[in-house]
Amino acid sequence: MRKILYLTLCAAALCVACKQGQQPADADAADQTLQFTTSSHERILRYDVPDEEAESMTYYSMATLHLVLPTVIAGEEPTDLLCAVMQTFLGDSVSTTLSDAVERYLSQPLGADNDTFENVTEVDSAEADYMHLSDKSDFIYVKTLTPHWLVLEDNAYEYYAGAAHPMSGRFYLNYDLQNRRLLRLDDVVTDRSHLAVLLSRLYSEQHVGERPYGYSTTTDGKGNFGIPVTDNFYLTPEGLSFVYQPYEIASYAEGIQTLRVSFYELMDASILTEPFQRTDF
CA-based, 20 to 30 A from 50: which of 13, 14, 105, 191? Predict the structure, then answer.
């Protein structure tokens, strides 16, 4: 399944890159379709963890990283967007280049608490003991590309050896192509408290009556939901989509939750910033 998704993304990136070659040479850079750089990495590590009863226990960690990034940010120069990719998607606030961040991602075993692992070595997949294998993967690619903005998505997955279930999540970055800067929620919405009320109302309208057994972790028992504002959102031509990970506002069984708010609803609530009121999407 991963291979199919990866090949699909590569094909899409190739099509967009081909279209870019058809653009006039003097076209405005912000309006040009971006070319993409694609890379794929995988590494399995074997390591020992000190054990109270035995001298040590041997575990394994597999890391898979697929990147489909605009060429303009896939280089070594630490642009604000590249730094945000490393920090937001890879949890890396130390590395200053993408190659360093990739190496750090691949060389850090998953499942070793407090860096207490020893004898870290790289092994072939045939050598791994899958009963003691932790697995992490990140698929980072372009979700949306318009003349106005670029949206990057990270499909993240983690499974710790022996855990009851894996954890997955989706994370986003929005980039203003016109002004070459990251877009934060405060660039779009003027009042977070009013937005929280709007999100809670939308969530209640969508979900009240669907959970007769009280699966939601945020209900007050009377069908009311207090939904917090998240900075994990992405832009669409219609509005904003807010994405909540499992356990964040609902149970694991209910999966990732997405709440969509249109620009019209934000305008009616008088909380859409003036630049977005003027933008023709």
Answer: 105
Amino acid at 230: T
Please give the model's pTM, rounded to 2 decimal places: 0.80
Domain of residue 243, CATH code: 3.90.640.20
* CA dihedral sign of residues 164, 4, 98, 170: negative
Token look-up 């092994």 returns 123
Strands of 82-132, DSSP E: 118-123
Give the 3-state secondary structure of residue 29.
Answer: helix
Tokens of 68: 């489909």
Report how far residue 281's alpha carbon sits from residue 276's, in angstroms, rounded to the nearest whole number: 9
- DSSP designation for 227: P
End-to-end CA distance of the chain: 34
Calpha distance 20→246 (Å, rounded): 38
* CA pair distance 86, 105, nearest whole angstrom: 10
Longest dimension (CA), the chain: 69
- Find the domain containing 12 and state its range: 2-183
Q: Which two tokens stand for residue 60?
A: 């394994």
* Tally of structural domains, the chain: 2
What does the block give as tokens for 154? 């990270």
What the block records as the tokens of 160 is 């710790």
